[in-house]
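Methods — Computational structure assignment.
A single polypeptide chain was analysed. Its primary sequence is given first, followed by the predicted tertiary structure written as structure tokens.
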Amino acid sequence: MARMSQGEHARLLRIEEGKEPVEDVTPEKLARRRARANIPFYPRTTYFNNQASRDGIRHFVMGFGDTNPLFQDEEYACGTKYGGIIAPGSFLYTVAWTLLGAGLTGVHGWYSGGDWEWFRPVYADDRFAAVGIIREMLEKTGRMAGGGTLLIDYSDKIYLNQRGEITGMEHYHTVRAGRKEAGAAGKERKLEKPTYSKEDWIKILDAYDDEELRGADPRWWEDVKEGDELKPMIKGPLTVRDMIAWLMGAGSPFMLAHKIQALWEARHPRGLEYVPQTGERDVPELVHIFDHFAQTIGVERAYDYGNQRMTWLIQYFTNWMGDDGFLWKVSGDLRAFNQIGDITTYNGKVVKKYIADGKYCVDIEAWAHNQRGAVSMPPHISTVILPSKEAGPVVYPNPSPTLMKEVSKARPLNELIAEGKLV
């Protein structure tokens, strides 16, 4: 085996003044990425969880502040229809929240939202594999790239349990731009860190106390009315501690240690982010921990993970629907960066109730804003299936035949590359 020190390694690249190693979007990278589109594959590895263990579920919900006993309390959960602990659907983020192997290494990306669909609950002890399908990529100009090219990168992640059932999937999108362009644009710079008075903290603590958690009290479809408003739910003020707690529960494909990190850098020598203020370079995820790293890509302070904010939105619905409901679809987009010190408040209202193929459905429009009044998640429609007083328990949806056929063709990424079917 070749020694790391004999090849092109991230730590051996020279940093010359005025010639920082910043990766750009190139025609070659775009061609490689597009050549991988619409070919289902199993990624090289599950980067954090491949099983929904009881401890793993507990660590995950603790990592984003969800107090629902259905996800942690064995005695309580055994008294529900599930007969034991389940996980929120967002637990699937811990199996894979981005497609490793999609290309464009070194080009900074912001998870900017997605469209989730679930078909079965995530039970404790379920085991999972992920199938990735790279989809289209759109080019546009945007302020985040200083008027230069932004790439809107779409992909699907499909999650199969140990029985081969498709438990859920997300069609997600990532905004990509060269770090140099994003840093020069400075779209999210010069925002003062908010401070909160004693009176402000009284309101924050009251909002946490007033958080709705339906739990064991069934929310019947017949009792829901179009126009019903959901109680607000808050998260924040955001701290670095929140990010570390999130990582402890959700994991990361980049936060690695010692030799394992060195091996990753050998495979991706240009995958690190360089910070001129400190002369350091490290994994791009440090934009969520250190202000200097965030400033390199045009944001004033460290900011939240996109899938972290989506997980809060998912919690908003699971809190509302109660133990007997089923979260079928969630759509969300991320707009304003949620920076250290910011508060995120979720609001929603019922916009439609209907019956579809035996499923008693409720459509909810939900959105989020920060303490400055800026919309951090614009309004989108999500769908909950509720129990019915007349028809009984929820009926679970099924994946489409088209999706099932596509997933059945998935093969390991390494095999597809070795055979020349992926470049």
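Note: DSSP finds eleven helices and 15 strands in the chain.
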